[in-house]
UniProtKB/TrEMBL annotation:
InterPro entries: Integrase_cat-core, IstA-like_C, RNaseH-like_sf, RNaseH_sf
Superkingdom of the organism of origin: Bacteria
Organism: Anaeromicropila populeti
Integrase catalytic domain boundaries: 109-283
GO BP, sorted A to Z: DNA integration
Gene Ontology molecular function, alphabetical: nucleic acid binding
Protein name as catalogued: Transposase
One Pfam family this sequence matches: rve
Family to which this protein belongs: Belongs to the transposase IS21/IS408/IS1162 family.
């Protein structure tokens, strides 16, 4: 329960037309608490003393606060040196409304022109499985700076390949590529700094050049420079995930895209405009060719001796004849596709339980007969043909023309 002095301040500010939210921000209380005491305006206020021992020391107190001193223990010492005989409780109650907000120092809002920038980040979310066990799952989020159109994708990893795949999927969803992509100093993007400038991960730098955007990183310990995507991460955790039911990550990602479309069809809280309607004004750059996009949707794997391909901690079967060969894998509509060149070796429904083994029907057919050797043996071949009957004179000629007559 609030002290009587705070309650009076709430009601006084409400009489001057301030909202419960504004009062809560000023007094450091929740807007719901402020609203509760505003709605109780008709009830008689708690009885308080008209005068207090602090009254004659308030000018000195305000002078100390103007110097940035808000620690009530320090203030009490100074006031007692000046003759104050009261306690610290009434002092804390009086000082509380004057304390600076926790969000200080103030920061500048960063806005970008159309098509200029997208912001991206990872957020670590949580869910419980059917047994009640808690799991963590990374969520890739990206938001366009002007229209505020959003993209969310849940993954099994936060590595460079996953980041590239998610970014390509996001650009395809947006229908274009922004000129810049702003992120924090994640190791998959920046490997260090030299003279204050970022040292880019060369593989990510090549990726940016292929896709056609300029990578940007926010200043160290200055996350507010990418505040749009920071808020989106919290929005996903607080608005999308709570109470949501899903079968696997593929199902969760389908729901995430539906949710993105739903919220982007409503006016944005900051711009007041509908993001999906503003998307046409973003002025995004044209998407690169399909082969370039597909290049970053594929990952290379070596098939094990027992004909398995590892992906996200799960082993998937391919025909045993491809053991030891390098194959290309990709996620596609909830399935893992495994290719050797242009040949589709296997298509498995993606599994998310690490350690699982998924066999391919007929995976080891012919292995025993061939003794595990896929290539032909280097040997000669016997032909089965009829014996030709020749005249005896033929043999005479071969023996030097000897006559038998």
């Amino acid at each position: 329960m609030l002290r009587s002095g705070i309650i009076l301040m709430i009601r006084e500010k409400a009489q001057h037309g301030k909202s419960a939210y504004a009062i809560g921000m000023e007094l450091g209380i929740s807007k719901n608490t402020a609203r509760k005491y505003i709605e109780r305006q008709g009830a008689p206020p708690p009885k308080i003393d008209r005068f207090s021992k602090l009254d004659s020391f308030k000018p000195m107190l305000h002078e100390l606060m103007s110097e940035g001193i808000f620690n009530c223990v320090v203030l009490l010492e100074r006031l007692k040196d000046a003759g104050y005989e009261g306690g610290i409780t009434i002092l804390k109650e009086y000082v509380h409304p004057f304390r600076p907000a926790k969000s200080l120092p103030a920061t500048r809002r960063f806005e970008t022109p159309s098509g200029k920038q997208a912001q991206m980040d990872w957020g670590i979310c949580q869910y419980t499985d059917s047994s009640g066990i808690l799991h963590k799952v990374p969520a890739f989020v990206m938001i366009l700076g002007t229209s505020r159109v959003k993209y969310v994708e849940f993954t099994s990893r936060c590595d460079l390949k996953s980041l590239q795949r998610c970014m390509v999927n996001a650009f395809s969803y947006f229908g274009g590529v922004p000129k810049e992509v702003l992120t924090d100093n994640m190791k998959t993007v920046v490997v260090g700094r030299q003279a204050g400038k970022p040292l880019w991960n060369t593989r990510f730098e090549d990726f940016a050049a292929d896709i056609g955007f300029t990578p940007k990183v926010c200043r160290i310990r200055s996350p507010q420079t990418k505040g749009k995507v920071e808020r989106l991460v919290y929005y996903v955790k607080d608005n999308f995930l709570p109470g949501r039911k899903f079968e696997d990550l593929s199902d969760l990602n389908l729901q995430a895209l539906d949710w993105c479309r739903m919220v982007d069809e409503k006016p944005h809280g900051t711009t007041g405009k509908i993001p999906l309607q503003e998307l046409i004004h973003e002025g995004l750059q044209t998407l690169p060719s399909q082969p370039v996009l597909d290049k970053y949707r594929w990952e290379s794997r070596i098939v094990t001796r027992d004909g398995m391909v590892s992906f996200d901690g799960v082993r998937y079967g391919v025909p045993w004849q491809y053991s030891g060969k390098e194959v290309q894998v990709r996620l596609c509509s909830g399935f893992l596709e495994i290719y050797y060149g242009e040949v589709l070796l296997a298509k498995h429904k993606i599994q998310y339980r690490s350690g699982s083994i998924i066999y391919l029907q007929g995976q080891y057919e012919g292995l025993a007969e061939r003794k595990g050797i896929a290539t032909p043996y280097p040997c000669a071949q016997q032909r089965n043909s009829a014996v030709e009957i020749r005249e005896l004179s033929i043999y005479d000629q071969l023996l030097g023309g000897v006559s038998h007559g």
